[in-house]
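Before going further, learn to read the protein records used in this course. The integers have meaning only within a learned vocabulary of local backbone shapes. The record below shows the convention in full.
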Amino acid sequence: MAATVRDIAHAAGVSVGTVSRALKGQPGLTETTRAHVCAVAAQLGYDIGRLRRKPLRRVLFLLHRQHSPLSANLFYSEVLHGAEEACRDAGMALSFLSLGPTDPVLEQVELHAPDALLCAGFFEPELLHLLRGTGLPLALIDMWADGLPSVNPDHRQGGYLATRHLLEQRRRNIAYLSGSPAHYSVRQRALGYRQALYDAGILADPQLEVLVADGEALEQDAAAALRALLALPHPPDAVFAFNDAAALAALRTCAELGVRVPEQLAIVGFDNIAAAAQANPGLSSVAVDKPGLGQAGIRRLLHPDGTGADEVMPVRLIVRGSSRTGA
């Protein structure tokens, strides 16, 4: 028999009203009490969604502080734009908040009085645990976590397409500029990269997979990583970068060193931000429907019982001068 609100109240040692407020994310409780009630409800297998029958009116778009400011992060600014359009069409309001693990997370979220949360990009497990503890409907974009609805571009297929393209250009010593493996997207893109090499009968060389720092240090770190790769006894003849920012930094470093692109080194990025087409030569990149990700995230919140909790959106490779050789 399914657990009831009274069962949760008895097990948690609180009133039925406290349980209702905690599961609905309503004010008037300490965060310790709210987290305790939600934990007991989860242990009893209670479906929190059954208490949230009222229509959603306010959605809070959350972005990790490492991805901010939005003005400097063209990927997530377009995702936010898509979510904003979907909210407008559904008659909902969207607000924005960037968070870090040392912030008073729950207090800042409560200031926005949201009915639901939309998390984009990487969040530490501890931070995600706090957000889940609010009891509010929660969906993820460009991230995955067990038990939560998510929307992702096909990261693995994108990594595969980029690497296969480089192989088709007769490159055989292909490096991977990798972000932190804590990011779901980075791990999946690496799997696609390795799978393409495996399918071509090439063993992945650990020396050619180089970790690049996130955030403000990315450009400097990507440049240093490329210099180190080019100094190897058998340097790469191609580079697949986990995102366009790292790929563009590699492209600029080649120009500084006099390395001809793509003749000596072919480069492919991921995300297809506007700067990719404006680079010289133009940067080949895996294109992602960024506004579509935001729209799909809102759909996951509006229709939590839709077919499939996890949605994977197709990607496509845009080939430009940074990797194309010959006619």
